[in-house]
Structure formats: structure tokens, C-alpha cells
Write a structure and sequence with these properties.
Blueprint lengths: L8 E6 L3 H4 L1 H6 L3 H13 L5 E6 L9 H5 L3 E5 L9 H13 L2 E5 L6 H7 L6 E13 L14 E10 L9 E8 L4 E10 L2 E6 L12 H14 L14 H9 L4
Parallel strand pairs: 1-2, 1-3, 3-4, 4-9
Antiparallel strand pairs: 5-6, 5-7, 7-8, 8-9
């Protein structure tokens, strides 16, 4: 987790498409899904935290080399425009995770290119969207992400996500959700990839005001603290072969 006295730098990324094409969604999230998430983080993270937002329509999707170099934790919300994210940006984010940047993938972001690349699986799941009640059960109450979270955390209306969820075996399962139809889902799971931490958290369909819920906001703030590198993400060293370099010097070819 991030040191208590170090500034936490967070970027909230949202494709921002639903809010532009659906009046019902823009009415729920007038400042965008990214705006609601950022608002919640500002409420629950330390006041010296630097929280910025970016969207698909921004230049380089708002994820320039400079932005990612200054990001400790990236939150990612996507749904209908996964294929529109440039492969070069996916590779850039993937590299920063390996270098230590934290990544929080939200709801339909399970199908985003970067999450599938990090997982190495299809990341497919069962789903049904009938505004059902979701109960989010804490099954690892001592985990930092679960601190201060009700069990169950009750979401009155939400899209159903159900098993089988095609992901690798998580390092930790923090939350499991149950739904009115009897389905269950690993709704809060963590992974380590390279030097980076990844947290996937499923509640957050665009049709419901989930990201205004205080408990959800606490989960995301806890997740950001947990995922942040203790000393900031570092550039990985270039691959080298010291033995080859030494022999090259001996025969004068270096």
C-alpha cells in the first residue's frame, strides 16, 4: 500500500460513450461515470491526492506517456468501445502495470484489451440485465480493500454477472456476489502482474447510479490505496546479457 505521507496520483479512465449517446445514462451521470468515480475518490482519499480523469475521445485516449508516468493507480471503466482503444495505448498501460502502476478494472472492463492481455484468458462470464438486487459478500474481511465495508453490501438494482468467470485463479478473492436468480460471482478479486497490482471489481453497470453509493466509493478508495506502489512505478531495466557483454569487450567487438 502507498506510504501514508506520499501523494497518491490517480487517473480515472472512462470510455465516455454511453453518456454521449443515451440521455438516460447522461441523466444518471451528468458529469460522466468518470466524474462520479473521481468525486467519490476525492471524498475518501487523502486531501493531498491528485485525481484526474481521461476518456476515449481525448488525445491518445488521455493516457499519454506523461500521464501514465505520473499515475500510481489507473481505474478503467469501459463497455461498448473496447475495440476502439488503440493497441499502442494498451501496450503502454500493460507496460506500466508490469513496472508497478496499480490497475483497477471496473464492471464491463473485464472485456477490455488490457485486462484480457494481463489475464491471458477470455475473461468471459454469464450476464443478465434485469435490475436485480446484488448482495456483495465480504469473504476476506482482513483484506485492506474490505476495510469499513458492510457485508453484505446491498445494491438494490444492478446487472447480474455470474460464474463461470474465465479468469486465472485470483491471488485473493475479497468479495463474492449473489443475485435474485441464485447466481454467484467472484465480484472482487486481485492479481499481481510484474511489479503491479490489479483489482477487478464488478458492480457498476451504467444504467444504475452505483458509483454514487458511499460503500462502493469506499471500496474504490480502499482499492486505490491497496494497488498503489509503495514508492511509485519504476521503469523496468532493458534486457541485457552481462556474460555476452563481458566477452564482447575481451575480443574488442563491444
Amino acid at each position: 500500500m502507498v506510504a501514508a505521507n506520499r501523494q497518491l496520483r490517480v487517473t480515472v479512465w472512462n470510455e465516455g460513450v454511453h453518456e454521449q449517446i443515451d440521455d438516460r445514462i447522461s441523466a444518471i451521470y451528468p458529469n460522466g461515470i468518470h466524474g462520479a468515480i473521481a468525486e467519490g475518490l476525492r471524498k475518501y482519499l487523502p486531501t493531498n491526492s491528485l485525481i484526474r480523469t481521461a476518456t476515449l475521445a481525448d488525445e491518445e485516449h488521455g493516457l499519454t506517456q506523461e500521464v501514465l508516468a505520473e499515475t500510481d493507480v489507473l481505474l478503467w471503466w469501459g463497455h461498448v468501445a473496447h475495440d476502439e482503444v488503440a493497441d499502442a495505448i494498451v501496450a503502454r498501460v500493460h507496460q506500466r502495470v508490469l513496472e508497478g502502476m496499480g490497475l483497477i478494472v471496473l464492471h464491463s472492463g473485464h472485456f477490455t484489451k488490457v485486462f484480457k492481455r494481463l489475464m491471458g484468458t477470455t475473461c468471459s462470464l454469464r450476464w443478465r440485465n434485469e435490475a436485480e438486487r446484488e448482495l456483495v459478500w465480504t469473504i476476506n474481511p482482513v483484506h485492506p480493500i474490505a476495510a469499513g465495508i458492510d457485508s453484505p453490501l446491498v445494491i438494490d438494482h444492478q446487472e447480474m454477472y455470474g460464474e463461470f468467470f474465465d479468469i486465472p485463479t485470483p491471488d485473493e478473492v475479497v468479495f463474492i456476489s449473489s443475485f435474485d436468480g441464485g447466481e454467484v460471482f467472484r465480484s472482487g478479486v486481485t492479481f499481481r502482474r510484474g511489479h503491479g497490482k490489479v483489482f477487478y471489481f464488478s458492480p457498476g453497470d451504467e444504467a444504475y447510479p452505483v458509483y454514487f453509493d458511499d460503500q462502493i466509493r469506499r471500496v474504490l478508495a480502499n482499492g486505490a490505496r491497496w494497488a498503489a506502489p509503495s514508492q511509485g512505478a519504476q521503469n523496468l531495466p532493458a534486457v541485457s546479457n552481462p556474460a555476452r557483454d563481458w566477452f564482447s569487450k575481451q575480443d574488442g567487438t563491444a
